[in-house]
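Entry:
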Amino acid sequence: MQDNRSENVVLIGKKPTMNYVVACLTLFNSGKAPVVVRARGMAISRAIDTVQLLGKAFVKNLEIKDINIGTQEFMKEDVESSSSTIEITINKPSPNVIQIESGKNKGD
């Protein structure tokens, strides 16, 4: 997994899904693409919901560049513990280029 201090990372937690969707949109609109949506444990489903909602309602043709899953191990009260992690890298599609044919009429 990448460094937590990256500017283009949205860390998913316990807030409502729309908060994270707005955070992703804000990063896209400020030119910080690609955006990495990162979660662990019970928040993984919220991360997936965030990306799905973002793609279906706000950013048409959202590009999912990469999905990384893993396990993070740590010590909690002298007990070794682990948590599943997910990192989804998304990118806003580039604007479509409109091709205009010159010199042709509809009737030709």
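The longest helix spans residues 44-58.
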